Amino acid sequence: METGGNSLPSVGTDGTKRKVCYFYDPEVGNYYYGQGHPMKPHRIRMTHSLLAHYGLLHHMQVLKPHPARERDLCRFHADDYISFLRSITPETQQDQIRALKRFNVGEDCPVFDGLYSFCQTYAGGSVGGAIKLNHGHDIAVNWAGGLHHAKKCEASGFCYVNDIVLAILELLKRHERVLYVDIDIHHGDGVEEAFYTTDRVMTVSFHKFGDYFPGTGDIRDIGYANGKYYSLNVPLDDGIDDESYQSLFKPIIGKVMEVFQPGAVVLQCGADSLSGDRLGCFNLSIKGHAECVRFMRSFNVPLLLLGGGGYTIRNVARCWCYETGVALGIEIDDKMPQHEYYEYFGPDYTLHVAPSNMENKNTRLQLDEIRAKLLDNLSKLRHVPSVQFQERPPDTEFPEPDEDLEDPDERHDLDSDMEVDDQKLPDESSRKPPSNIIQNGRIKRENIENELKDQEPHKVAADHARGAEPMAEEMSSSKASDIGPMAVDEPSSVKAEQDNTS
Ligand SMILES: [Zn+2]
């Protein structure tokens, strides 16, 4: 496979060392979604063990994340949703049937012991990584993060809080533009929805599309209002291999980097796009998957690497270990070192596994059309959007635990008049990013109506008309019940992952 590279003049050589930090909480592997549930936080511990025994931990700063606090989580999420996550327990859930339903907790997203601390841990790692990048690290890694399906007011697809949105909000304090790239097999719907109407965040998701969870991610969904052309969706079919994948990834991301010129990049490295995944249907090798990391790294722009899906856990650990090596610029041995989970990797005990002989349903013609369409959309972005930074907003500071109890209202003084940061408004719930940055509640869909007149009428949904309206009321409302589920693309395929469970 070609190593790629890019045409940006500011790029250093790929051999250049990067300053890398890595977030890991030794407790994370103990969280347990329940018997038969495919999401297994244990895979994070397996990854860590491999990193340790490959000797990679010595090459980066290893940090235990500060748990994200309620007010950190509420920068994106609704207050009542976070209060619910904080209070619900397996013992009390029978008394909370209505709330469980309202917040979509209980089935794909079960209540388990320590659920809230799990959320605090994985979100703390991603926000912590963003803070590190804002302070000069080149690459930050949080394999426990990347839970891209979580919405403002509801859990979805094994995700409860959206650590990615929170990390991007932190990066936006220092960077005019942030690029989000998602190589999980599932559409990165929660992140796309959050930033659907802003030009300060471009989201690019490569995913299986068509009768597959979460059902969104049509190539015609391109963003709305100020965000028009700042959402990119790359719909793929079963069995895609390394070569086909990179025939889209490199030209599209190369063009995105050229026209959008982000100050920071977040790469969600969901490993359910690997060959042989328990829930996935792609045919990528670990090297093919990691090529996305290598390519992203080659631009020498601050890079946050996050986890995500991945349900054949031995391959998830293999993949994220190898990708940590790529981040460090270290090519690690195929022969695996002895470690406490060694027996998971038999009979070969190697890092790499051969992809299968499954059929690649993505034809050359389809791939060419997708590439041409997306490059055409990108050609419509003429200007690089910018914002005036008069003064830098303060970092999210994780204080010592006792400071956690401070009056949250004191925080507003820290928050300057920066567009991206919280508004100086009196009530608690208003201390969220303004609506021109973050899109909440309902997903807005805009297609290229004039160019695609034959598209289905459902795409111009009733809520569409509201898209350009400021979402202030919704933003400041702590009552989320009036914010319905997504009006468009109600996920008929929600059960796709669930069906495969157990
Ligand atoms: Zn996934």
From TrEMBL:
<feature type="binding site">
    <location>
        <position position="311"/>
    </location>
    <ligand>
        <name>substrate</name>
    </ligand>
</feature>
<dbReference type="GO" id="GO:0141221">
    <property type="term" value="F:histone deacetylase activity, hydrolytic mechanism"/>
</dbReference>
<dbReference type="GO" id="GO:0046872">
    <property type="term" value="F:metal ion binding"/>
</dbReference>
<keyword id="KW-0862">Zinc</keyword>
<dbReference type="GO" id="GO:0000118">
    <property type="term" value="C:histone deacetylase complex"/>
</dbReference>
<feature type="binding site">
    <location>
        <position position="184"/>
    </location>
    <ligand>
        <name>a divalent metal cation</name>
    </ligand>
</feature>
<dbReference type="GO" id="GO:0040029">
    <property type="term" value="P:epigenetic regulation of gene expression"/>
</dbReference>
<feature type="domain" description="Histone deacetylase">
    <location>
        <begin position="37"/>
        <end position="324"/>
    </location>
</feature>
<feature type="compositionally biased region" description="Acidic residues">
    <location>
        <begin position="397"/>
        <end position="408"/>
    </location>
</feature>
<comment type="similarity">
    <text>Belongs to the histone deacetylase family. HD Type 1 subfamily.</text>
</comment>
<keyword id="KW-0804">Transcription</keyword>
<feature type="binding site">
    <location>
        <position position="272"/>
    </location>
    <ligand>
        <name>a divalent metal cation</name>
    </ligand>
</feature>
<dbReference type="Pfam" id="PF00850">
    <property type="entry name" value="Hist_deacetyl"/>
</dbReference>
<keyword id="KW-0378">Hydrolase</keyword>
<feature type="region of interest" description="Disordered">
    <location>
        <begin position="385"/>
        <end position="502"/>
    </location>
</feature>
<keyword id="KW-0156">Chromatin regulator</keyword>
<feature type="binding site">
    <location>
        <position position="186"/>
    </location>
    <ligand>
        <name>a divalent metal cation</name>
    </ligand>
</feature>
<dbReference type="InterPro" id="IPR000286">
    <property type="entry name" value="HDACs"/>
</dbReference>
<keyword id="KW-0678">Repressor</keyword>
<feature type="active site" description="Proton acceptor">
    <location>
        <position position="149"/>
    </location>
</feature>
<feature type="compositionally biased region" description="Basic and acidic residues">
    <location>
        <begin position="409"/>
        <end position="431"/>
    </location>
</feature>
<protein>
    <recommendedName>
        <fullName>Histone deacetylase</fullName>
        <ecNumber>3.5.1.98</ecNumber>
    </recommendedName>
</protein>
<feature type="binding site">
    <location>
        <position position="157"/>
    </location>
    <ligand>
        <name>substrate</name>
    </ligand>
</feature>
<keyword id="KW-0805">Transcription regulation</keyword>
<dbReference type="InterPro" id="IPR023801">
    <property type="entry name" value="His_deacetylse_dom"/>
</dbReference>
<keyword id="KW-0539">Nucleus</keyword>
<dbReference type="InterPro" id="IPR023696">
    <property type="entry name" value="Ureohydrolase_dom_sf"/>
</dbReference>
<feature type="binding site">
    <location>
        <position position="108"/>
    </location>
    <ligand>
        <name>substrate</name>
    </ligand>
</feature>
<keyword id="KW-0479">Metal-binding</keyword>
<dbReference type="InterPro" id="IPR003084">
    <property type="entry name" value="HDAC_I/II"/>
</dbReference>
<feature type="compositionally biased region" description="Basic and acidic residues">
    <location>
        <begin position="443"/>
        <end position="467"/>
    </location>
</feature>
<dbReference type="InterPro" id="IPR037138">
    <property type="entry name" value="His_deacetylse_dom_sf"/>
</dbReference>
